[in-house]
Amino acid sequence: MFRATLLYLSRNRTLQRQATGLPLARRLSRRFVAGETLPEALAAAEALNRRGILVTLDHLGENVTNPEEARRATGEYIEILRQIAQRPGLAGTRCTISVKLTQLGLDTSDEFCLENTRAAVSEAARLGNWVEIDMEGSLYTERTLNLYHRLRLEFTNLRVCVQAYLYRTQGDLRPLIEVGASVRLCKGAYDEPPNLAFPKKAEVDANYRRLLALLLSEEARKAGAFAAIATHDERIINWALGTIAEQRIERQHFEFQMLYGIRRDWQEQLAAQGYTVRVYVPYGQEWYPYFMRRLAERPANFLFLLRQIVSA
Ligand SMILES: Cc1cc2nc3c(=O)[nH]c(=O)nc-3n(C[C@H](O)[C@H](O)[C@H](O)COP(=O)(O)OP(=O)(O)OC[C@H]3O[C@@H](n4cnc5c(N)ncnc54)[C@H](O)[C@@H]3O)c2cc1C
């Protein structure tokens, strides 16, 4: 109920306008967001890189309805890739970019979005970098995967995210493994109905393990698949580490991914043990829906926020 309410509010444009205008709210958002500008985000990325942690940069924004805005967002991503390439500490895949297809025009049309995403992926390929495609609400799952598969025919420098809370994901993994895809496996951050997604956390966690086992299987590895294990869940991370050790899975087949500002202890610990760790670093002025999704994940975050507001 709490989660559903916050996720509902995350889509409210009026609240978004009000929250983003409040200095206190902007300050609080900094727990999960690296800043509002590209230089701030690049500085955060460089700081993580210096600690041996890789980065994927997300220029916040989603559900763009105006084609001009989608073109502008595409141009901005191309500029981000160029700026990354100019920084010796970040160049190559030490700092990739993560995009949301609704930011690149998916609400206008599939072809328009494909054209924009292709421009970003092609520039990334030229610079020796990668593009990660986030997964949004279930309305977009099918179209996101179709677009990924179309681009995968032309490029290899892209990764797509799938969500363990959706029943359909096991079926979606099969063709991804067949093409040797690089897949980010997360639990899923949106409000989905019980006919599409496991309603209980225990079921989502069990499905996460099942899907990760498939992604790390010998068959998947032989096909060239790669698993980005995107979770902060200690039990799942420990289970993954056990599976990796038991099956002697080499490190070129997987990496751990976490969100900026969450479980820094694990980020550091895994990196210190020599595992590849990549942190998803969001930045920009459109932080409201992302911030609300992070609050929805954990009631303690919301209580913390209320305490800060009361004491301000
Ligand atoms: C790199 C990365 C990329 C992602 N990309 C997507 C995407 O494209 N699409 C999508 O739908 N979702 C995405 N997510 C979000 C994901 O779906 C989950 O909503 C989120 O990761 C919380 O789930 P969890 O796996 O950490 O497990 P949980 O069981 O929710 O949490 C496990 C533990 O992690 C910590 N934790 C988790 N969330 C928070 C939080 N908000 N604040 C503080 N501590 C927290 C707590 O200690 C908690 O006990 C991504 C997550 C990561 C790490």
Strand content: 5-15%
CATH topology title = TIM Barrel
* CATH secondary-structure class: Alpha Beta
| Helix-strand sequence | HHHHEHEHEHEHEHHEHEHEHH
Structural class: alpha/beta
Number of helices: 14
Mean pLDDT: 94
Rg, nearest Å: 19 Å
Mind summarizing the main beta sheet? 8 strands, parallel, barrel
Total number of beta strands? 8
Number of domains: 1
Bound molecules: flavin-adenine dinucleotide
Low-confidence stretches: none
Distance between the termini: 28 Å
Q: Kindly report the oligomeric state of this protein.
A: single chain
The shape, in one word, is globular
Corresponding CATH architecture: Alpha-Beta Barrel
Q: Helical amount among residues, as a percent range?
A: 40-55%
Question: What descriptors fit this protein?
Answer:
8 strands; 312 residues; binds flavin-adenine dinucleotide; TIM Barrel; alpha/beta; globular; eight-stranded parallel beta barrel; 52% helix
